[in-house]
Amino acid sequence: MKKIHYGKWSGDDAEAFADELSLEQLMQALSGMLLMSEMGDASLRDLLDALEQLLMEAATAPEDDSGPLDERQREWLRQASEEQVHAALQRLLQRLQEEGYIVPAETAVAGQEPFEAQSQTSHAQHPGHFGGQERVRFEITDKALDFLGFKALKQLLGSLGKASFGRHDTRELATGIDVSGSSRQYEFGDTLNLDISATIGNALRREGLNLPIGLDYSDLMVHQAEYQSSCATVVMLDCSHSMVLYGEDRFTPAKRVAMALAHLIRTQYPGDSLQLVLFHDSAEEVSLSQLARVQVGPHYTNTREGLRLAQRLLARQRKDMKQIVMITDGKPSALTMEDGRIYKNAFGLDPLVIEKTLEEVAQCRRSGIMINTFMLASDHGLVQFVQKVTAMCRGKAYFTTPYTLGQYLLQDYLGKKTQRIH
Q1: Are residues 246 and 371 in the same domain?
Q2: Which of 161, 253, 310, 419 is most enclosed, with most CB atoms within 10 A?
Q3: Taking the mean position of all CA atoms in its chain, how far away is CA 294?
């Protein structure tokens, strides 16, 4: 059994310094780096470099903006030698694995030692360097994804001006039944969400104060609540190369929003479903557990193929409401032909591509599927296309930026979840 030794940090022990740091705060600070498109092939060396940069910036930042470090830790970093800093980083890497935030990738070099052993041997053999760790890839775990999704959701709800599920910070989101208005008499088929006080009150008025209290069918009273319909959602995420061009990374914020939406549905609306489709030259479904690791793909935008795949996924769901949430920054520029070849037109608005794509939109309308489009660009051709999509399927179109995407998307989703019944 592995032994863990605890001790008071004296200020000069690199390992004790690393053990005192909060991994949750580090993960939150690293979230942008972990979700970046190019991090799909990241190595341990990349992660160590990012950790070193984070700590060095925190050590020299103003005291009110020092991130995960307190003043004592900042002072230690400013005075530590290169070897001490590297030893602390290796210990942090080991802790991230021990706590289940990262694991070796399945494609790591065969025969590699575990992170802990490799960290120690490489540092011993190459003081001041990270040895051969640049060859070893890592993956963040479901625990890390869940944590990042929770944090992203909390931030997005805060930006909407809403308190985050109660007034006390917690890692757990509340569940329960929202009650509004007065109760009414139970009718066959109602959810048995009994108003106990009103039910017993009816029985007492009918029979008087006798024990035991006899309940009759007519005594039953139920709470009136917000009706919550079940919804099947497919997020169509554009991962064509334009999502990271022109000096702006639009793909990373889109992934973060999808993670927040997944966390919201899993914790607050377990009756709903969420699936993810990436579209570029073609389209494919990606599990939500792989979301943080997906990267920007080829150059073109095959919107039609994404819609076709989304419809097949939604056809398997038995929900009250079905919708496609499409996040894109480009107009359709590719088409999968009947023989499997990909027809491409880099300029977009190709009549054949647009015609076939709109045919798929019409099929969505006939199947009762709503399409809501979140545009990350204001290109005239994209606006024209989205206007046609919106008119055909009675959906909505939102012009957003990577910074406002989450607010618009969550407002739209939460707005559909409730309607009053009397």
Answers
A1: yes
A2: 310
A3: 12
Same domain for 193 and 125: no
Report whether pLDDT(127) > 60. no
* 281 shares its domain with 204: no
The model's pTM is 0.66
Last residue of a domain, one of 171, 201, 224: 224
Nearest-angstrom CA–CA distance, 368 and 245: 35
In this structure, the answer to whether residues 107 and 215 fall within a common structural domain is: no
Query: With 80 as the cut, is the pLDDT of residue 221 above it?
Result: yes
Contact 316, 169 (CB under 8 A): no
Are residues 274 and 259 located together in one domain of the fold? Answer: yes
**Interval 142-190: pLDDT, tens:** 788 788 888 887 777 665 654 333 333 333 433 333 444 567 787 776 6
In which domain, by residue range, is 214 found?
Answer: 184-224
pLDDT tens digits, 247-298? 788 888 888 888 888 888 888 887 889 999 999 999 999 998 888 778 887 7
pLDDT of residue 415: 77
Tally the domains of the chain: 3
Residues 345, 393 within the same domain = yes
